[in-house]
Amino acid sequence: MFKPADLFDLAQTEHAAIFDGCNFAWEALKKIEVYLDQVTRQNPPRRFPGASIGERVLIGEGTFVEPGVMIKGPAIIGKNCHLRHNAYLRENVIIGDNCVVGNASELKNALLFNGAQVPHYNYVGDAILGHKAHLGAGVKISNVKLFPGNVEVEVDGVPLDTGLRKFGALLGDGAEAGCNAVLNPGSILGRGAVVYPNVFWRGILPANMIAKNQAAIEVIAKRPR
Reduced to 3 DSSP states, what percent helix, strand and coil does the chain have, rounded to the nearest 5? Predict the structure, then answer.
C-alpha cells in the first residue's frame, strides 16, 4: 500500500507529475520544492485585502482568501478553495481544487489533493492528503522524531528507512482523523481509513479500517451538593 496509486487517485490533482518515478508515495515529499521552483518563478500572485501573500504564489479562480491569511510561498492553491482567517501556509505548499484550510491551521511542505479539508487548528507538516481526506479540529501531524535519525516505516515487521528526516503522514483518499488525534511521524492511513478522536496513532492503518481507543467511559450518578 505504499505506491502512490495504492493511496491516491492521481487524476484528482493537477500535480501528479510529482509522483513520477516514486516507488513509495513518501518520496514525493522531497520533490515538492523543486517542482514549485519550476512552475511558480515567473508568475505574479493575485492580491487579497488583509492577506499576506508572497511573490511566488499562484491562486486559482474562485478561491477566497480571508483577511489574516499568510502565504509565504512558494505555493500553488487551486480553484474554488477557502482559506480562512489566520491560516498559515509556509514554504512549499500545493493545494488542489475545492479544498479548505481553516483558522489557525499551518501547512509546510505539503500536498493536498482535490477536496481535502484542514479546517480547524491543524498542523500539517511534510504530509500528503488524498482526495477528500479530512482532519478534525485540533489534529496534529507530527513530522520529526524525538530521537536522531530518519523516519522509518515498518514493512512486514521490518523497519524501512524512508530517507527522510522529516516525514509526517500520508492520508489516502477519503481517510479521516478525528478531533485532537495525533499522527506520529511516518503514519500511513489507507483509503477510507478512520482514526477516532483523541487517538495517538503510529504506523500503518490499512484501507477502510478504524483505529479507536479502548478506554472505558465511566458513568456515575450526580451527587447533590
Answer: 10, 30, 55
Pairing of strands 158-161, 152-155: antiparallel
Question: What integer pLDDT is reported at residue 41 of this predicted model?
Answer: 62
As a whole number of angstroms, the longest Cα–Cα distance in the chain is 70
How does DSSP classify residue 36? H
Distance CA 133, CA 74 (A): 23
Q: Identify whether the C-beta of residue 144 lies closer than 8 Å to the C-beta of residue 184.
A: no
Do residues 106 and 124 lie in contact, with contact meaning Cβ atoms separated by under 8 Å? yes
Domains in the chain (CATH in brackets) are 4-211 (2.160.10.10)
Helix (H) or strand (E) run with residue 88 in it? strand 88-89
Does the predicted TM-score (pTM) go above 0.90?
yes
